[in-house]
Request: fold
Amino acid sequence: MIKAVLVDDELHCVESLALQLKKFNDRIKIEAQFSNPFKALEYLTENTPDLLFLDVEMPGLNGFDLLNKLPKAEMAVVFTTAYDEYAVKAFRFSAFDYLLKPIADEDIEACLKNVEKQKNKPPLYDHLDRLMEFISSPKVLPNKIGLPTGEGIEFVSYKEIIRVESDSNYSIVFFTSGNKLIVCRTLKEMEQLLNDFNFVRVHHSHIINPEYLQRFVRQDGGYVVMTDGSVISVSRSRKDDFLNKMSNL
Reply:
């Protein structure tokens, strides 16, 4: 059972999220909820939940400031926000989960799955620094991205990723070193993360880095050969988009 705390300066948002979470009461228990961030800080200084749902923009003490004032206890943090696209990218790149307001039940379901897939809580203060770095320079893409695993967060260079393969609710990332990493994200989530770095989804189960594309073969429905020797089919529905993106590189 996940023990959770809710913090949002708008009382109706706290109550609405609490009501939604009751639909998942077999998996999550709300320990406390606050519309005053200073009261939340007092509570969280003495208590560490498994999961903190935290609003970003709050008067007097925003979500980032609140986290920076907490003792270095480990917990999973999910930001609830109506933020713009750059902040959403920052959450993705630093491996934080987030829920966009208005929050949908299916987004909560996906969020809980991500939390449950990680055996250990992410190293909060490591990737909080990454998040703040990106928030301060939102138009500069990071050299490294955070990938959540069952053991925590791996920060890797996107330039070293050759391809990503779906594995049910997980993804397998293949690197130039020959290593691979099982990531607690679906392929759709990985596609959203890597889209800004010109990665291309060529199949419902595969994303590739065009930097390591060796050749495209039209025979047998169409497939690509990567520099690591992997052969990946290009689905019929994605072929035109793939060829268009390749011609614009």
